[in-house]
Design brief:
2 domains; Lipocalin; mainly beta; single chain
C-alpha cells in the first residue's frame, strides 16, 4: 500500500511538472516579442542612389512567435545617441580616423517615428528617406535607432536597436562592398609647355586592381594611375573625380593590332577634375590628343589625362593613359 502510494505521488508529481513545462513552452511559443531586423553588431545596411530629393529605404520591425498579433501594436522609436560611440569604441578603440559618424539630420527624414503593426500580422516597415549627395565617400554613416516603447508585447532585449548604415551607389560603383576595376595603361613623367607634354623618359607600363568609389549620380573617385595613399586626408587630396556625361557621345575608332580601322564604337564622354577644390588638391588637365570615354556596353573607362600632385614643385607632370574595366558587380 505504501509502495503504491509512493508510485501514485511520484506519477502525480511528474504529471504536474510535465504540465508546467508544457504551459511554459506554450507561453514561450506564443509570447510576442518585438524586434528590429538587423545583422551582426545590430547593423543593417541599405544602398541609396544619388539625387537631390533623396530615396526611400525601409527598416523592418517584426514580432516573433508562431502566430500573428492578436491586437494592433504601436512601436515608437527614437535616436540612440550612445550606440555609435559604443560601436566605435568596441571596434576601433583609439583609431579615431576609422570611427563611424551619425548621419547629419539634414540628410534624412523619418516621419512619423513610429510604426503600426496590425492584428494578425507579424511585421511592419518604417520608411526612411535619405539623401546621400555631398556625403564623404570613405566615411561610414549610421542612423542609430532604438525601440522606445511598445503599446503591448515586449521589445527584444538584444534586437531592440539598430545601426542603420547608409550605403551609396551609382551605375559604376557602390560602398556596400569595395568596387574594384582592373586597370592597365601607361604613364610618363615630364613637363607641359603651352599645353604640349614633353619628356626625356620612357613611357612605363602600369597595372593594378583599382578601387573605385561613387561620389555622385554620374561620378566616381579614383587615385591617378597606379598611385596609392595611406590615409584619408592624402587620399582625398590626391583623388580625381571622373564624371560620365550620358548625353554626350564620342565615336571612338577601333584599332586592330595597332592599326586603325574604319569601324567606330559610340561611347559616352568623360570629364576628369580634382576631387577637392583646394590648394592642397591634385592638379589635372585633359589630354588634347584623346577624349576620355566610358563604354556602357562593357563597363569600361578609357582615361587620358595629365596630373601634378600638390606636393610636387615646379613643372613636373605625369601623363597617364589607362583602361579600367569593372572586376565584379
Amino acid at each position: 500500500m505504501k509502495a503504491f502510494s509512493k508510485i501514485t505521488i511520484l506519477a502525480a508529481a511528474a504529471a504536474f511538472l510535465c504540465s508546467c513545462e508544457m504551459e511554459y513552452y506554450k507561453e514561450e511559443l506564443y509570447r510576442k516579442e518585438i524586434f528590429i531586423v538587423s545583422g551582426e553588431n545590430n547593423i543593417l545596411g541599405q544602398e541609396f542612389e544619388y539625387g537631390e530629393k533623396g530615396f526611400q529605404g525601409e527598416l523592418a520591425i517584426y514580432a516573433c512567435g508562431t502566430t500573428g498579433l492578436d491586437q494592433n501594436v504601436t512601436v515608437k522609436l527614437g535616436l540612440d545617441f550612445e550606440a555609435i560611440g559604443e560601436y566605435n569604441k568596441r571596434n576601433f578603440d583609439t583609431k579615431f580616423e576609422e570611427y563611424a559618424m551619425e548621419l547629419p539630420a539634414e540628410y534624412y527624414t523619418i516621419d512619423p517615428m513610429s510604426v503600426e503593426m496590425e492584428a494578425g500580422s507579424c511585421s511592419a516597415s518604417l520608411p526612411i528617406n535619405v539623401r546621400v549627395d555631398e556625403l564623404l565617400p570613405d566615411q561610414t554613416y549610421f542612423i542609430p535607432l532604438r525601440i522606445e516603447s511598445v503599446s503591448s508585447c515586449m521589445p527584444s532585449a538584444t534586437k531592440n536597436f539598430v545601426l542603420f548604415e547608409i550605403q551609396r551607389r551609382n551605375d559604376y560603383a557602390t560602398t556596400k562592398s569595395s568596387t574594384y576595376y582592373t586597370m592597365t595603361g601607361t604613364t610618363q613623367t615630364g613637363w607641359i609647355v603651352d599645353n604640349i607634354f614633353g619628356s626625356n623618359t620612357r613611357r612605363q607600363a602600369i597595372n593594378s586592381s583599382k578601387l573605385v568609389i561613387p561620389v555622385g549620380e554620374r561620378s566616381v573617385r579614383i587615385l591617378p594611375g597606379a598611385t596609392a595613399a595611406n590615409d584619408k586626408v592624402t587620399t582625398r587630396n590626391n583623388s580625381l573625380r571622373v564624371t560620365v556625361d550620358p548625353e554626350s557621345w564620342v565615336n571612338v575608332p577601333v584599332y586592330v593590332e595597332g592599326e586603325i580601322t574604319d569601324e567606330v564604337v559610340p561611347m559616352q564622354r568623360v570629364f576628369i577634375t580634382p576631387y577637392l577644390d583646394s590648394q592642397d588638391a591634385i592638379r589635372v588637365s585633359a589630354s588634347p590628343l584623346n577624349d576620355s570615354t566610358y563604354d556602357p556596353a562593357t563597363g569600361t573607362f578609357y582615361l587620358y589625362y595629365r596630373y601634378q600632385l600638390a606636393t610636387e614643385s615646379g613643372n613636373t607632370w605625369h601623363e597617364v593613359r589607362e583602361t579600367m574595366t569593372r572586376s565584379q558587380y
